Amino acid sequence: MFSRLQRYIIRELLSPRPVVADVFVKYYSRFQHPPKKADQQTSITRSLERLIEQGMIIALGRKTKEKFFIEKVRLTPLGRTRAKKLFAQPQLPFIIKHTHHGHSKKS
Q1: DSSP string, 32-45
Q2: For the chain, which residues score pLDDT lower than 70?
Q3: Domains annotated on the chain, with CATH
Q4: Buried b (16+ CB within 10 A) or exposed e, 15-27
Q5: For residue range 46-76, what is the model confidence (pLDDT) as tens digits?
Q6: Which pTM does this prediction carry?
Q7: Strand order across the beta sheet in which 19-20 lies
Q8: Would you say 12 and 80 are in contact if contact means Cβ atoms under 8 Å apart?
Q9: How far is CA 77 from its chain centroid?
């Protein structure tokens, strides 16, 4: 199962192009009392790392001696398939009614 933040990230990544990692901060704009910026960044990073471990996303970035900075993120083929299933609209049943117009039984 995915957290609300992970669902938000996956939904944002359904676009065909890689997404800049800074976009995910918008998730917190709908909160009346959002967490501190540092806590937001920590939560986003953890969520991205967990999605990477699950094979859902690929992160592109740069690495320094101390840290890896995620710059762009995109869904893997597996991630795209799972995301489509996750956000699929339920299908209504398709019923075909057979009618017999103008056909009468001959006696």
Answers
A1: SSPPPHHHHHHHHH
A2: 89, 91-92, 94, 96, 98, 100-107
A3: 4-86 (1.10.10.10)
A4: eeebbebeebeeb
A5: 999 999 999 999 999 998 888 888 889 999 9
A6: 0.76
A7: 19-20, 68-75, 57-63
A8: no
A9: 12
